[in-house]
Amino acid sequence: MTMAGLIKATGGRGMFLVAALSATLLAACSSNESSVLRQPGALDAYSAEQVFDLGEQQLNENRLDDAAFFFGEIERLYPYSSWARRGLIMQAFAYHRARDYENSRSAAQRYVDFYPTDEDAAYAQYLLALSYYDQIDDIGRDQGVTFRALQELRRVIELYPDSEYATAAVQKFDLAFDHLAGKEMEVGRYYLSRGNFTAAISRFRVVVEDFQTTTYTPEALMRLVEAYMALGLTDEARSAAAILGHNYQSTPFYADAYALLTGRGLSPEASGDNWLVAIYRQVVRGEWM
């Protein structure tokens, strides 16, 4: 049946069927062409620009693996050309879109190594950081990836401070940093719920000392009050509450800590000679936030 006959036979639905059929045929042709062109030697007669165009075509059609392949072939066929440089950054991008983070990272790293002063070097470093950042999962997982993300994001900020990617890197750095603090809090809460107060204190202390700019600091201070009170260490508990009151008095965490102390006839105050008193003095002098 001809296309006209198909339209007539299907009534108002004909145009939609024809469009769908046409898209399917085009996709099949594109897929077949891509398979042929991926054979050894098939691209040898193509110019660098033509291979780049093939990569872009596959990228636009969301054939990300094929796109990455063609972009990578430019580097193989024309290793010293400007097209090879463009193909390498596009290969890193295609792999990242495909969530093939290992290969994206590899391509981005090669770009940074070979072209550190190029205009796209900042973006390559940013992609390298994203290859770790986008793998950060829930708080309960291993945090090695988070540490690597922080390292690479810091490199974007330090090496390319004037680039458009530095601002985004700062935002993601803060979120990843918050993520690490969340991990410490999760473990600390676990120990606290099981009465292992010493282990809980060590986790909450890490948050207060090393992650004080994160959103978890108020809760960490309140949990320290709970843990120290449970151990009968009232000086430490009062000192933690004093810091909480100085910086986060409007939070429900301070209200809880205040109620816990006053219920025992105590008040928030830097007391004794302990690590929290030292922090409180820094807070009062404005050296610690």
Automatic annotation (TrEMBL):
Domain Outer membrane lipoprotein BamD-like, residue spans: 47-240
SUPFAM superfamilies the record matches: TPR-like
Keyword list, A-Z: Cell outer membrane, Lipoprotein, Membrane, Signal
CDD domains, alphabetized: BamD
Any one GO BP annotation for this protein: protein insertion into membrane
Compartment(s): Cell outer membrane
Coiled-coil intervals, chain numbering: none
Pfam families for the chain: YfiO (PF13525)
Function: Part of the outer membrane protein assembly complex, which is involved in assembly and insertion of beta-barrel proteins into the outer membrane.
Subunit structure: Part of the Bam complex.
NCBIfam families given in the database record: OM_YfiO
Entry's family note: Belongs to the BamD family.
Protein name: Outer membrane protein assembly factor BamD
Organism: Ketogulonicigenium vulgare (strain WSH-001)
